[in-house]
TrEMBL record:
InterPro entries: BAH_dom, BAH_sf, Zinc_finger_PHD-type_CS, Znf_FYVE_PHD, Znf_RING/FYVE/PHD
Alphabetized GO MF terms: chromatin binding; zinc ion binding
Keywords associated with the record: Metal-binding, Zinc, Zinc-finger
SMART domains linked to this entry: BAH (SM00439)
Residue ranges constituting the BAH domain according to the UniProt record: 20-134
Organism per entry: Stentor coeruleus
Superkingdom in the source lineage: Eukaryota
The name this protein goes by in its record: BAH domain-containing protein
UniProt xrefs under SUPFAM superfamilies: FYVE/PHD zinc finger
Length: 184
């Protein structure tokens, strides 16, 4: 009877790829076989004792185009949906870091670069639903549309609510007080 070798799995808190240090918790861009860009959060790094290759366990972000047949007007170009989908990948697939913020953090920024994204929902891939449901997403304006931080809004000077310029028929650049605040 022959002995079988015990495979030892070694875990790491960080790896260096192309002179860039990646750590557990980092959000990253991943190369996909079809040259598409996908995004994930690093959960851990590990190496099988029998092989020289290193791997990362990641939790995927879904892009709006992965979820919607037609992307709704309220979805931002910088929007990602967190998910419950995990997978192990080769660390060689990781090629850049990104920053993923909350909607509130993202909306407060005056300028953002291509490596700054935000997430306001979790996509349950098994149930094929977004959480929270779209009915619970932040609404703005008198038209009650869902907030898209890519659009320009006028803010009421008193209540700080946001409005579309075309909905409130504001034609000049001036301070604005909404009808609700004017009547109270």
């Amino acid at each position: 009877m022959s002995k079988t070798g015990v495979r030892k799995k070694t875990e790491y808190k960080q790896v260096i790829i192309n002179n860039e240090t990646y750590r557990v918790g980092d959000n990253v861009k991943i190369n996909e076989y079809n040259d598409d860009c996908v995004y994930a959060q690093i959960l851990n790094f590990w190496q099988d004792g029998c092989k020289p290759d290193a791997y990362a366990r990641v939790k995927w972000y879904f892009k709006p185009s992965d979820i919607f047949k037609e992307i709704p007007e309220f979805i931002s170009v910088a929007e990602l949906m967190s998910s419950n989908v995990e997978q192990s990948i080769s660390v060689q697939c990781i090629y850049d870091k990104i920053k993923v913020m909350t909607l509130e953090e993202y909306h407060e920024k005056d300028e953002v670069s291509d490596d700054i994204m935000f997430s306001r929902s979790i996509y349950d891939n098994g149930m094929k639903v977004l959480r929270p449901h779209l009915s619970q997403w932040t609404r703005v304006c008198i038209c009650e549309s869902i907030l898209n931080p890519d659009l320009c809004y006028i803010g009421c000077e008193q209540c700080l609510k946001f409005f579309h310029q075309e909905c409130i028929k504001l034609t000049e650049d001036r301070e604005y007080i909404c009808d609700e605040c004017l009547s109270s």
